[in-house]
Design goal:
Number of strands: 13
CATH superfamily of the largest domain: Vaccinia Virus protein VP39
Shape: globular
Order of helices and strands: HHHHHHHHHHEHEEEHEHEHEEHHEHEEEE
Radius of gyration: 23 Å
Largest sheet: 9 strands, mixed
Helix content: 40-55%
Bound molecules: S-adenosylmethionine
CATH topology of the largest domain: Rossmann fold
CATH class of the largest domain: Alpha Beta
């Protein structure tokens, strides 16, 4: 990686964030795969700021590119990714944080010095100073500035949701609320809220789901009261719906086909500990995350490595219920994973569709007659949701769509085969659910 990424030096959070963003722009990973590497190399006190810079620079990436375009005399070339990344992280700080301007410019120039490219140092210095001078007079008119989304993604959302697109974009640009799922087997929600109150942690109960609690101010997961003991888990309210919709019965044999890191598996077991749950996941390295989640919650799942697009892993015994939390674009969880704005491509959506179809077809064979299957994604694209289910139910011959009724007040779009939740400012992420019953 060159002089910028010297493993022997103590890194500054801005340098680490620039290197992280550079890799995202170059499609060499996502924030969740790259960030742990740098977190381990930074002094602990710099990690929160590093994370903020990574998330913020991705969240506002397209707005900042509009600003850069306004400030440069000639557009940056595509291969000037490193310079683009440094500028983006610096401008994010100038506009969205209270770091003093001179500290931002000095640090950016210092990083640029290590590039050994005098032109880059000069450009970064000049452009940041110009940004400080003209930040109030920057044009806020163009769509990229106003909406801060990749143009193709914005256009797609506008086309799909002509009435709701502005709300979706606004939610996507917002920091996500921190939502907890209270383990109601272990503690009543009111008692958990009282426990938070005792520790001066401000929170409120969701009016929709009995297990959901919102913290007013986000905090590190391990500091959340009761988290280590399994009293609560971090889970979006939309994701919590899966457990309620599947509504398992005592001793049900259930397959969670795409299980890691085990968020929904844990909920299913909390709701009905007598179930026999097989937690399937194709990435071996992700099984550890499921195991530690189950251990934290003090529940048991049978962990199985395997690919849900074939049945090589299956022991031939049919399940009473199946959850397919399918791999998807993540277009409903952009506020939680703002790098999706940069990384998402239509081609990836098309590839997911093939996997989603294949999973449904294969796993349907492992479901017993009268059994139920919940298909869900964290996508707002009908091509990964409604269209997949429509295609499946019309070709498979023994699938019936079960009605879904969600608590009133949750903003939802009922569809012919399920329900689509859109990301909302103060509550759930975007999710799709379809509940199917096997008729024979
Ligand atoms: C949306 S995430 C699941 C989240 C999980 N259900 C939870 O609530 O914590 C999708 C998971 O499916 C896994 N996956 C993707 N393709 C798969 C396949 N062909 N077979 C099994 N798992 C797969 C991914 O590695 C990822 O962990």
């Amino acid at each position: 990686m060159g002089a910028l990424d010297n493993h022997n030096e103590v890194m500054h959070q801005m340098q680490a964030a620039s290197l992280t963003l550079e890799r995202v722009i170059a499609r060499r990973g996502s924030l969740s795969t790259i960030m742990p590497e740098y977190e381990g190399r930074l002094p602990a006190q710099r990690v929160p700021k590093y994370k903020e810079l990574c998330f913020g620079s991705c969240r506002w990436f397209y707005r900042i590119q509009s600003i850069i375009n306004q400030l440069v005399e000639r557009p940056l070339k595509d291969n000037e990714i490193r310079v683009r990344a440094i500028l983006t992280v610096a401008i994010y700080q100038l506009l969205e944080t209270n770091t003093p301007d001179h500290a931002v410019v000095n640090e950016a120039v210092d990083i640029a010095r290590k590039l050994n490219k005098p032109w880059a140092k000069g450009l970064i210095n000049a452009l940041l100073r110009e940004c400080i001078r003209s930040r109030r007079s920057l044009s806020k008119e163009d769509g990229q500035y106003r909406h801060a989304h990749n143009p193709w993604f914005l256009e797609k959302i506008q086309t799909l949701y002509p009435d709701n697109w502005a709300q979706i974009i606004k939610a996507n640009n917002h920091r996500p609320p921190l939502c907890l799922r209270v383990n109601l087997r272990r503690i009543k929600r009111e008692n958990y809220l009282a426990m938070l109150g005792d520790q001066n942690v401000s929170a409120h109960a969701s009016p929709f789901l009995p297990s959901a609690v919102y913290l007013t101010t986000p905090m590190p997961v391990n500091s959340i009261p009761g988290f280590r003991d399994g009293l609560v888990s971090v889970q979006d309210e939309g994701a919590q719906l899966a457990g309620y919709l599947l509504n398992l019965e005592k001793n049900d044999r259930c397959l969670d086909a795409c299980s890691a890191p085990g968020g929904k598996a844990g909920h299913l077991l909390e709701m009905e500990p007598s179930i026999h749950l097989v937690a399937l996941e194709w990435k071996e390295r992700k099984l550890g995350a499921i195991a530690s989640n189950m251990a934290r919650l003090k529940v048991y799942a049978h962990l199985q490595q395997g690919d849900a697009t074939n049945l090589d892993w299956w022991d031939g015994r049919q399940y009473d219920a199946i959850l397919i939390d399918a791999p998807c674009s993540g277009s409903g969880v952009v506020r939680r994973h703002p790098d999706i704005k940069i990384l998402l491509e239509q081609q990836q959506v098309d590839e997911n569709r093939a996997i989603q179809r294949q999973m449904l077809q294969q796993l349907w064979q492992t479901l017993r007659a009268e059994g139920k299957m919940l298909y869900c994604t964290c996508s707002i694209f009908p091509e990964e949701n409604e269209e997949i289910i429509e295609e499946f139910t019309t070709t498979c011959g023994n699938a019936e769509v079960e009605p879904i009724s969600l608590p009133e007040g949750i903003p939802q779009h009922k569809t012919a085969n399920g329900v689509q939740l859109l990301p909302s400012m103060s509550a759930n992420d975007g999710f799709y659910f379809s509940l199917l019953k096997k008729t024979d």
